[in-house]
Automatic annotation (TrEMBL):
It is an enzyme of class 4 (lyase). PANTHER family: CARBONIC ANHYDRASE. Pfam families: Pro_CA. Catalyzes the reversible hydration of carbon dioxide to form bicarbonate. Transmembrane segments: none annotated. It catalyses: hydrogencarbonate + H(+) = CO2 + H2O. This is Carbonic anhydrase. It comes from the Bacteria. Belongs to the beta-class carbonic anhydrase family. Keywords: Lyase, Metal-binding, Zinc. Its EC number is 4.2.1.1. Its cofactor is Zn(2+).
Length: 196
């Protein structure tokens, strides 16, 4: 913890670099990704403060949209799309994902009931594409399938659906390899994840 504290102490000693941020924010991208500490959106994209609006959830899960029972995730998505007017939404899954791996392997999550309940939100539970995939520590295929399921869930949000229909919004599915740093994007024409 001490190195983080030391950096935080010196970070605020350059106020001139941050003064413009007080004027507001106008990010162009909502970046939905996992809470995993190895996934750092600004590092992956090279974004500076104010360029990404981030939503991080265990397993980069987009929960179902229920207007009568809004969630923090739904509010974040709606705010990014309707108020900030982001032009793109990226759902980024990653290799070695503990959440997707637990679903694929059918791990016993009784000792973490909140995690178990949250993972039940996974749209179209990810499964191993082939039996050997369950033993693959990267769970690559399952994560990619999971990203596509979350994109479908995202499209069910009224604000997203409306902006997609009028061409003011694009949604993208990314897969990040924590062990190589490579990023792949889902291509609709080939239905595969390919290098950016």
């Amino acid at each position: 913890m001490q190195p983080l504290i030391d950096n935080a102490r010196t970070f605020g000693q350059r106020p001139e670099e941050f003064a413009r941020l007080a004027d507001g924010q106008s990010p162009e991208v909502l970046f939905i990704t996992c809470s995993d500490s190895r996934v750092v959106p600004a590092l992956i994209t090279g974004a500076r403060p104010g360029q990404l609006f981030e939503l991080r959830t265990a397993g980069n899960i987009v929960p179902p949209y229920v207007s009568e029972s809004p969630t923090g995730e739904a509010a974040t998505i709606e705010y990014a799309v309707e108020v900030l007017g982001v032009r793109d939404v990226v759902v980024c899954g990653h290799s070695h994902c503990g959440a997707v791996g637990a679903l694929v392997r059918g791990d016993d999550l009784d000792s973490v009931p909140a995690v178990r309940a949250w993972l039940a939100h996974a749209a179209d539970e990810p499964t191993a594409v082939e039996p050997a995939d369950a033993g693959d520590p990267t769970v690559a295929r399952a994560v990619q399938h999971h990203v596509l399921a979350q994109l479908l869930r995202l499209r069910s949000y009224p604000c997203v659906d409306k902006r997609l229909a009028d061409g003011r919004l694009r949604v993208r599915g990314w897969y990040y390899e924590v062990h190589t740093g490579a990023v792949r994007e889902h291509r609709v024409d080939t239905d595969s994840f390919e290098a950016l």
